[in-house]
Amino acid sequence: MTVYFIGAGPGAADLITVRGARTLAAAPVCLYAGSLVPRELLAECPDGARLVDTSRLNLDEIIAECVSAHEAGRDVARLHSGDPSVFSAVAEQMRRLDAAGIPYEVVPGVPAFAAAAAALKRELTVPTVGQTVILTRIAQQATPMPPGEDLATLGRSGALLVLHLATRYVDRVVEELLPHYGAECPAAVVAMASRPDELVLRGTLADIAGQVKEAGLVRTSVIIVGRTLGAEQFRDSHLYSPERDRHVC
């Protein structure tokens, strides 16, 4: 058997990949994060599949489900929101599966920051304005940040920042970024990206915190800060330039 870590996408059920949907439809066991994964996706599971909501399970209990399925020779679809490569707690599960000798594969999904950019109708990298995107979070009650990855340090780069799991602490985010980006730097918050109740807030570092509080947002949101959000006057990319020699690989 195999455990398949599947990126379920940012929220809309139809944003799961074709490979993810096919894998889900063939697995007799599905472990899903019920607080984040759209329940419509469970309709893709085969009839009689064992469905386990992991939102209230600890790591030991989740791995126990995988071990039980392994012993029975049954594949497992492990549904995670967004993409497994970012803020998914997949690494610790893989480590346990390695120790138990249980094979696994990863099926990528659409990450939350990509869905947020789509909602904003913005490319996060713009020629001559910004070519770097930093995906990060802030230290809070959960796991602390490693040395050198605090906002004050990352902010010195001037790169576009995408912050996950930070909306509750938007005042702190603004305070730490203001010295590096300035009050007029474009900022946005996208909540429930791609879902029917999606909410998009646009502003600057000067007013985005007030908008977040007025909207009552505390979770399931990403904060995006950077100059490319407001870029209008910039040179066209070399990719489609008429001056580019298209006969050179």
TrEMBL record:
Pathway given in the UniProt record: Cofactor biosynthesis; adenosylcobalamin biosynthesis
Per the record, the gene is cobM
What is this protein's record name? Precorrin-4 C(11)-methyltransferase
EC?
Answer: 2.1.1.133
Family, according to the entry, reads as follows: Belongs to the precorrin methyltransferase family.
- The reply to whether Lyase figures as a keyword in the UniProt entry is no
The molecular function terms of the Gene Ontology recorded here are: precorrin-4 C11-methyltransferase activity
Check the record and name the Pfam families matching this protein: TP_methylase (PF00590)
* PANTHER family found in the cross-reference section: COBALT-PRECORRIN-4 C(11)-METHYLTRANSFERASE (PTHR45790:SF4), SIROHEME SYNTHASE-RELATED (PTHR45790)
Entry-linked Gene3D superfamilies: Cobalt-precorrin-4 Transmethylase, Domain 1, Methyltransferase, Cobalt-precorrin-4 Transmethylase, Domain 2
Q: Cross-referenced InterPro entries, in alphabetical order?
A: 4pyrrol_Mease, 4pyrrol_Methylase_sf, 4pyrrole_Mease_sub1, 4pyrrole_Mease_sub2, Cbl_synth_CobM/CibF, Siro_Cobalamin_biosynth, Uropor_MeTrfase_CS
For this UniProt record, the keywords arranged alphabetically read as follows: Cobalamin biosynthesis, Methyltransferase, S-adenosyl-L-methionine, Transferase
- The source organism is Streptomyces toxytricini (Actinomyces toxytricini)
Q: Which residues form the Tetrapyrrole methylase domain?
A: 2-208
PROSITE patterns from the UniProt entry: SUMT_1 (PS00839), SUMT_2 (PS00840)
One GO process term, biological-process aspect: methylation
